[in-house]
Amino acid sequence: MRLSHVVAALEDLYPPSWAESWDAVGLVCGEPDAPVRRVLFAVDPVAAVVDEALDLRADLVVTHHPLLLRGVHGVPATTPKGRLVHRMIKNDVALFTAHTNADVADPGVSDALARAVGLAGDLRPLAPAPDDPRRGLGRVGDLAEPLTLKEFTARAAAGLPATAQGVRAAGDPARTVRTVAVCGGAGDSLLDAARAAGVDAYLTADLRHHPASEFTERGGPALVDAAHWATEWPWLADAERRLASAAGGDLETRVSTLVTDAWNLHDEGVK
C-alpha cells in the first residue's frame, strides 16, 4: 500500500474534522507515494518510539499524541522534536497522529478504556457530540457485576498497563460500584458531566488535588485516577485492528508496549 492509501483509511476511521480546533492531527511527515508495509502504533511520538520503529523497520508510526501540537517556525535538529523529524525523514519513516478525533470516535479511546477496566454491554458517551449523540468524549457503562470501590480500583489496575503512578482512588473503599464513567487522558473537565450522569465512579487521568477534593466533598461519584499514558494505551490495539481490517491484510502492524508515561519513579515513603 502507498502511504496516501493508509492515511485515507486512517482518516476514514478518525476524520480530521472531528478534532478540536486547537489540535494538530493527520500526517506529520512522509512521502504520500512511499510504500507502507509495517506500521507501529504508540501513544507518544518520542525518541524511544522512533528507536523501536527503526528496529522494526516500520514505514509508518501512528501515535495518539501530536508531535507538533503548538505552532513552530522550524524543526532544526538541535531541538528534541526537530531531531525526531530529521531521523524519521532520513529513514523514510512517516508519522501520523489521531488525537482528539480518536477521543470522540465511536469506537474511540474511551471505548477501549472502558472495556479494559471491565465495563460490559452498551456504552454511551459521557459528553455527546452536538451533531451526533453516538460520538463524544468519555463513555458510561456498567460492570458485569457490582464491585466495591476497592475491588474496582484493583480491576482497573489489572486491566491497564503498569506505570510508576499505578491507580489511586478517592472515596469509601466499601462503596458499591455498578455504573462507571471513563475518559481516556486528562478528564477533569468532565467532572460535572460524571456527576450529572449519576455514576458510582469516574475513572480518568491527571486529576488535580483541589478539584478532586471539592468534588468528593460535595458527595459526587468516587474518583479513580490512573496514569495518562495508561488510560490511552488500550486504544492502540483497537486502532491497529481497524486499520488492519481496512487494509485487507496488506500491512504488518504492531502495538508498542514501551511505557512512555512521563512519570517513571514512585516511592510511597516511610510508613
From TrEMBL:
Domain of life: Bacteria
Keyword Metal-binding: yes
SUPFAM superfamilies: NIF3 (NGG1p interacting factor 3)-like
Pfam families the UniProt entry points to: DUF34_NIF3
Gene3D superfamilies listed in its UniProt record: NIF3 (NGG1p interacting factor 3)-like (3.40.1390.30)
Keyword annotations: Metal-binding
Transmembrane segments: none
Cited InterPro entries: DUF34/NIF3 (IPR002678), DUF34/NIF3_sf (IPR036069)
Subunit relationships: Homohexamer.
Family: Belongs to the GTP cyclohydrolase I type 2/NIF3 family.
Name this protein carries in UniProt: GTP cyclohydrolase 1 type 2 homolog
